[in-house]
Design brief:
Largest sheet: 5 strands, parallel
CATH superfamily: Glycoside hydrolase, family 3, N-terminal domain
Oligomer: single chain
Structural class: alpha/beta
CATH architecture: Alpha-Beta Barrel
Strand content: 5-15%
CATH topology: TIM Barrel
CATH class: Alpha Beta
Strand order of the largest sheet: 6-3-2-1-12
Low-confidence stretches: 344-352
């Protein structure tokens, strides 16, 4: 059974019959986990193993474990700081900050892979402009050059552990005041202004290595009249052709308020796929998920399927002994030392 284009959530700590039925749908290819799906490391491992056992090739399992406010698995996991802390360190000692970024990313990714999770949606490539509270300290910095250097280090750390990275939120959510979880944000700047600031980290990290990108539910009205995740101009013309991105394009969650501007769930799914999205996230609305699945019929995109397979985690052979390794102990010391310098705002209810 091939991997389909839909990424779904599940209800609780273990799969129930409705979850299993939905995940066996041929248009499903991935699962995203939230805080409600996590109780302990052993419970997580059992849950992921069951999800992976359902199908072959196995479903991709993802989570938002970027750090700070957005860390779904907390008790029993290492505490990942907000990315702004790395930006502050960079201003004082750029070399140390780049080294820390790679080490912390390795810890985050290696720990997830140890329990079977394939992907963390990170790093955030948005500009850290105070105008955007929803991004805020999730961004590395206000300076796109600084973001680029720290993000590239972060990607290297993830890939060293065996996990591909997903940059977000293209073409940039950090310069927009509205929170697309709750409203439809508008960015009224010209493309030239966006290109000269927000696009810089995306362009340069793509040029280094980036396997996935998540779109922003924002309307950049001087570029296109629809949100970026529904815009072939943003995805096909700018992201793929101008920036040369050949990886997996994720919609942001089609249940968010910023996704409602084009109609119901079936319309959102159709327009996102037509615009060039490879994967549709549908979270926290089982009826909406069923509507999307029913609407897709026999939809198939071979290129998307190949890109999805590349997102499977590749933990090293000795991953089972991760916590006993010298590399882990040294990296965790770096992380703990860093955390003593950084204060983060924790919120398990922050939805991505």
């Amino acid at each position: 059974m091939n991997l389909g284009p839909v990424m779904l959530d599940i209800a609780g700590l273990a799969l129930d019959d409705s979850d299993r039925k939905r995940l066996m749908h041929p248009q499903v290819g991935a699962v995203i986990l939230f805080s409600r799906n996590y109780q302990s490391p052993s419970q997580l491992k059992a849950l992921v193993e069951e999800i992976h056992s359902l199908r072959m090739p196995r479903l991709v399992v993802a989570v938002d474990q970027e750090g700070g406010r957005v860390q779904r698995f907390r008790e029993g996991f290492e505490k990942i700081p907000p990315m702004a802390g790395l930006g502050e360190m960079y201003d004082q000692d750029s070399g140390k900050a780049i080294e820390c970024a790679g080490t912390i990313a390795w810890v985050m990714a290696a720990e997830l892979l140890h329990y079977g999770v394939d992907v963390s949606f990170a790093p955030v490539l948005d500009i850290g402009d105070p105008v955007s509270q929803v991004i805020g300290d999730r961004a590395f910095h206000r300076n796109p050059e600084t973001i680029t250097r720290l993000a590239n280090a972060w990607v290297r750390g993830m890939r060293k552990a065996g996990m591909e990275a997903v940059g977000k939120h293209f073409p940039g959510h950090g310069s927009v005041a509205g929170d697309s979880h709750h409203v439809m944000p508008f960015d009224r700047r010209s493309f030239e202004d966006i290109e000269a600031l927000d696009l810089i980290p995306f362009r340069r990290v793509i040029a280094t290595h980036l396997s996935g990108i998540m779109m922003a539910h924002v309307i950049y009205e001087q570029v296109d009249e629809v949100a970026a995740g529904y815009s072939s101009r943003w995805i096909e013309e700018i992201l793929r052709q101008r920036l040369g991105f050949d990886g997996l394009v994720f919609s942001d969650d089609l249940s968010m308020s910023g996704a409602e501007s084009v109609g119901g769930y079936s319309d959102r799914a159709r327009l996102a796929l037509q615009a060039g999205c490879d994967v549709l996230l549908v979270c926290n609305n089982s009826d909406g998920a069923d509507e999307v699945l029913d609407s897709l019929g026999d939809y198939d995109n071979p290129a998307s399927r190949i890109r999805m397979i590349r997102m499977h985690g590749r933990p090293p052979k000795d991953s089972a002994r991760l916590f006993e390794s010298r590399a882990w102990q040294q990296a965790v010391k770096v992380l703990n030392d860093f955390n003593q310098q950084v204060q983060s705002t924790d919120s398990e209810d922050f939805f991505e």
